[in-house]
Structures are given as C-alpha cells and as structure tokens.
Design goal:
Helix content: 55-70%
Distance between the termini: 28 Å
Shape: globular
Strand content: under 5%
Oligomer: single chain
Radius of gyration: 18 Å
Number of strands: 0
C-alpha cells in the first residue's frame, strides 16, 4: 500500500470513530436530559470511541463505507415527557452528525491555507457525518427514523408499522443490494453538499 493511501485509510478510521461517537453520545446525552440514566449506567455516555464500536459494523465501515455502531441503550419508559422525549432522543444522533458536518465545513470556507491533507480529512469527515445522519433518518426499523415515524403516526396505524420491526433489517439489506439506498439518499445528500459548499 502506498504511503498516501495508507495515510488516507488512517484518516478514514479517525473520521469513522468521530462520526459514530458523536452520534451515539448525542443519543445518550439527550436521553439523560429527558430523564433516563441508562446510557450513563451502561458506560455509553462517553466520548471514548471504544465505548461505541461494534466490531462487525466498524469493519463494514472500513471496507464499504457502510456500517454501524453499538446502539446506546435507552429505556423509553424512563423518559419524562413520553413521545416528545422519544422524538428528541431519536433525532439527537442524526442532528449531531449534521451539526458536526457544518462545523467542519468552516475549514474550506474560510481563507486560511490549511494543509491539503487536513482539508481532505475534513471533507471525508463531513461527508461521512452527512451520510450517517441521512441514513439513520430513514424510517425503517431499527434506524432512528423508525422511532420518529412511529411517534408521529396516528395511534391506530402504529401496530401495523411495528410489524415491520421483524423485517426491517431485511428491507435495509435489500435496499443496499439493489441500489435502492443510493436512490433514497442521493437527492438529500446533494442538497447537503450544496449547503456545505462541496
């Protein structure tokens, strides 16, 4: 492996660790704010990436730029504002990714001659955070978007939607294998790229 390729690969590892840590920490912190201390008790209210890595999901990230972290355990019964709290906890992870991406975009927006390698890393980090945020908002179990949709659905339809929890992972796999995931994400991703100045 060439030295430049090795450096890029190492930067990708760092970007992945930052993105999943910010995402899962945001879920845990919002859960604590809303009354559930389960994330803290389980050691997940941490900015240490090792607390959030799922080994298989991390390897998938490295090989295919698609993977997952260990979900932060949240006891929805402990949340003090019911469905409003569930909504906030579910949205906290994706929105933390979006916020980080926009903060990172300052690097190429301001007129400071940063090293080109650092700029490339920041672009990689921003893109990864945007992708992770959008992907997790897809309303298919077990993604964060499924909790959001379940909360806003009229009560009489929720039991039908909950039935999808059994098949959610298979639906996601089918979307990935058939390129359906790209079709869903790409229009939204293009909007974010425009907003980020990429």
């Amino acid at each position: 492996m060439e030295i430049n390729s090795l450096i890029s690969y190492l930067w990708r590892i760092v970007a992945i660790l930052i993105a999943i840590t910010v995402h899962e920490y945001a879920h845990g912190k919002m859960a604590e704010i809303e009354g559930d201390i389960t994330p803290r008790l389980s050691g997940r209210l941490s900015l240490n990436p090792l607390a959030h890595i799922d080994p298989i999901g991390f390897i998938m990230f490295l090989l295919f730029r698609f993977g997952w972290a260990k979900p932060v355990p949240v006891n929805f019964n402990n949340l003090r504002r019911g469905e409003k709290s569930i909504l906030l906890v579910s949205l906290a992870g994706p929105f933390a990714n979006f916020i980080l991406a926009f903060l990172v975009s300052i690097v190429w927006r301001i007129n400071i001659p940063f090293p080109i390698g650092f700029i490339r890393f920041c672009i990689e980090l921003a893109l990864l955070n945007i992708f992770l945020g959008i992907f997790n908002l897809i309303p298919i179990p077990p993604l964060d978007g499924s909790h959001v949709l379940e909360v806003i659905l009229p009560y009489k339809y929720r039991r039908y939607y909950q039935f999808l929890e059994i098949y959610g992972i298979f639906i996601l796999i089918a979307l990935i294998l058939t390129n359906g995931l790209y079709i869903i994400i790409s229009p939204i991703l293009n909007v974010f790229l425009y907003l980020l100045g990429l």
